[in-house]
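Run: sequence + 5-O-phosphono-beta-D-ribofuranose -> complex structure.
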Amino acid sequence: MDGRAGGRTMVGSVEMDEMPKKESTPAIGIVMGSRSDWETLSHAADMLTQLDIAHEVRVVSAHRTPDLLFDYAASAAARGLRAIIAGAGGAAHLPGMLAAKTVVPVLGVPVQSQALNGLDSLLSIVQMPAGVPVATFAIGKAGATNAALFAAALLAGTDAKLARKLEAFRAGQTQQVLDKPDPRK
Ligand code: RP5
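>> structure
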């Protein structure tokens, strides 16, 4: 169901955006159940961009575009994806259904819902039955950011340059705390 044309990638009938380098094969897919999830998942994209990790971004809904979901997951490994960051809110079936159709690691990000503050999203994503894992992160921005850092850590196992970038990122945030020890200043 996937194909390539002029550096762009097709999943089903949908052309995928490749970021940040159009010439690079995306290593990470970021998908979300709705455009309204972008405010949260953009933090994952920002972190991957900061670490210079090629990624693609797409709305793929378990409920509204189930066929696209299946195509996306089924083609993920062949298209070179090493991990999929999947964010959804409410009855958040997207990460689990993706994981059901691929062995590419799925990193679930619960989006903070209006009705239940994201607790519904968290429980929907985290409570997978044995045999189909979804690594589940915190609700909202922290989860999106950490999912990207976790995806980077997965890639860093075979990418020494990226491992050094991750170590530098950690050292940087340590130094930020040490530089401003007094919260009143
Ligand atoms: C889920 O329903 C999405 O992941 C989103 O968090 C939530 C609401 O979607 P919209 O009604 O804003 O499109 O499928």
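>> summary
Residues 1-7 have pLDDT under 50 and may be disordered. The first strand starts at residue 2 and ends at 5.
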